[in-house]
């Protein structure tokens, strides 16, 4: 459930004052400069989009925006160094899992009350900024995974787990050299995708407020067992081959929107499409993407919040999200511009409507990669049952977090 954003009266007054300023006012004409860090442009065209948004904001607000672009692989390291040295920018991009860490240690500011209409943004994306019921940033783009299917082998994609099992079994029975599906593995990537399946059984990963682990309860066990049950008709001896789905050796796979263009480019003869993840009791999805935050030691928080509002409004959010390689977080923008993503991307837009934010825990990436991922693999390899794998993972997670529930 989304709760009202809290904030200080001073923050409200600051934003009201800014809203009253036109581009021709004396206050707006002050030589205020904002520094914003973001990932390096994916393409020259993406850079043009960012530049257009920057220029329009400067003209409308009488300010200067200095954008510093850093290669994505180097970004977190450089940001960490800037934080340690006290030379942070005013605002910047932040990977979703880092929000909790920086919110709890005071590195980033809480969003002032009145900054955003929470109903204008997708709940899953917005909640990636929520820590202890407080909001610490706004989502600028988001992504998710969906089901890819070979149209020759799967004329109609499955909507439910039962249909998924039936179709997978039929594909392999019709041709033992073809796998029904590329079942994800127990690695960091597979563990990131798995919550979308868990949510499809009505489950959640943790209860942060009450400090309880939930992923070892029945919905989690059922979600992991689903993947295990698919393996007999989806042998790894087939799916471990290079590009099994793309080469027509598997009927389905779970992946992200980045593979749509890759497949069309590298495997033009493959007739495929995408569909939302099959579910047991309710549609669900995982989530990735980036948020924009304001740093506590920055100098121009007032302008920074207005800039982030500008990036996430209905006018600009689709253009920026596409430039960043993701999907809009602003609902009005997404609904208006859905056709611009193409029919093969429609499933991802549907997934984002039901996406669940990852737990707002500073240790979550470690839990995902070092605890949940090996548990998934242990169950899929048949070393332990799904219940035992998740129970062991839950015990390790409790020990790491110092929780008792």
Written description of the protein model:
With 405 residues, the chain is an alpha+beta fold. It folds into 2 domains: 9-142 and 288-353, Periplasmic binding protein-like II (D-Maltodextrin-Binding Protein, domain 2), CATH 3.40.190; 146-286 and 363-401, D-Maltodextrin-Binding Protein, domain 2 (3-Layer(aba) Sandwich), CATH 3.40.190.10. The chain is built from 16 helices and 12 strands. The protein has helices spanning 9-19, 44-61, 72-85, 98-104, 123-127, 161-174, 188-199, 218-230, 236-239, 258-266, 301-311, 317-324, 331-337, 346-353, 364-380, 386-401; strands at 33-39, 64-70, 91-95, 130-131, 134-135, 138-143, 146-150, 206-207, 212-213, 252-255, 272-275, 288-294. The chain has a 5-stranded mixed β-sheet. A 3-stranded antiparallel β-sheet has the order 10-7-11. Helix 1 crosses helix 11 (301-311) and helix 2 packs antiparallel against helix 12. It is globular, with a radius of gyration of 22 Å. Mean pLDDT is 92; it is low at 1-30.
């Amino acid at each position: 459930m989304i709760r009202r954003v809290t904030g200080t009266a001073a923050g409200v007054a600051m934003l009201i004052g800014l809203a009253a300023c036109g581009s021709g006012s004396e206050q707006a004409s002050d030589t205020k400069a904002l520094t914003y860090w973001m990932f390096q442009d994916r393409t020259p065209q993406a850079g043009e989009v960012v530049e257009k948004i920057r220029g329009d904001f400067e003209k409308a607000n009488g300010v200067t925006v200095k954008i510093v672009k850093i290669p994505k692989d180097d970004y977190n390291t450089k940001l960490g160094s800037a934080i340690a040295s006290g030379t942070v920018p005013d605002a910047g991009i932040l990977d979703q899992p880092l929000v909790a860490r920086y919110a709890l240690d005071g590195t980033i500011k809480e969003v002032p009350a009145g900054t955003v209409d929470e109903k204008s943004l997708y709940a899953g994306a917005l909640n990636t900024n929520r820590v202890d019921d407080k909001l610490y940033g706004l989502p600028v783009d988001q992504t998710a995974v969906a089901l890819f299917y070979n149209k020759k082998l799967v004329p109609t994609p499955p909507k439910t787990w039962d249909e998924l099992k039936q179709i997978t079994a039929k594909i392999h029975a019709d041709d033992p050299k073809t796998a029904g599906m590329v079942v994800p593995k127990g690695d960091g990537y597979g563990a990131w995708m798995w919550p979308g399946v868990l949510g499809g059984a009505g489950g959640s990963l943790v209860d942060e407020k009450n400090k309880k682990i939930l992923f070892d309860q029945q919905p989690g066990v059922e979600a992991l067992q689903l993947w295990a049950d698919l393996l007999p008709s989806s042998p790894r001896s087939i799916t471990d081959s290079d590009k099994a789905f793309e080469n027509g050796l598997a009927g389905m796979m779970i992946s992200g929107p980045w593979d749509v263009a890759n497949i069309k480019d590298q495997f033009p003869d493959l007739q495929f499409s995408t569909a939302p993840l099959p579910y047991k009791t309710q549609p669900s999805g995982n989530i990735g993407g980036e948020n924009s935050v304001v740093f506590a030691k920055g100098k121009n928080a007032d302008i920074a919040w207005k800039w982030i509002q500008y990036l996430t409004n209905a006018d600009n959010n689709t253009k920026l999200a596409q430039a960043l390689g993701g999907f809009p977080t602003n609902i009005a923008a997404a609904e208006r511009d859905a056709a611009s993503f193409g029919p093969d991307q429609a499933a991802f837009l549907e997934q984002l409507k039901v996406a669940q934010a990852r737990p707002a825990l500073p240790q979550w990436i470690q839990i995902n990669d070092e605890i949940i991922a090996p548990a998934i693999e242990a169950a899929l390899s048949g070393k332990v049952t799904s219940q035992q794998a998740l129970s062991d993972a839950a015990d390790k997670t409790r020990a790491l977090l110092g929780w008792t529930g």
